[in-house]
Design goal:
The protein is mainly α.
């Protein structure tokens, strides 16, 4: 098995998220929030794939609205 500090941190964060989450939706939401905070801290933007003809072909506003709707 390959060992590195990066992988060790990845597994630690995954285990923490799994322990704190009550569902897969909660896990994904916590992961998304964590990724946004990380991106802000290190000053980069997370870009999502644009897959025409799929539900993933959404603009940023549609994604933001879908996330807000899911919280209700």
């Amino acid at each position: 098995m390959i060992h590195s500090e990066i992988l060790e941190e990845k597994y630690r964060v995954q285990a923490k998220l799994a322990a704190e989450s009550t569902s897969i939706r909660d896990y994904l939401e916590r992961s998304h929030i964590g990724a946004q905070q990380f991106a802000k801290e290190y000053r980069f933007e997370i870009k999502y794939a644009d897959l025409p003809g799929t539900k993933l072909a959404m603009d940023k506003e549609a994604i933001r609205k879908a996330i807000e709707d899911a919280k209700r």
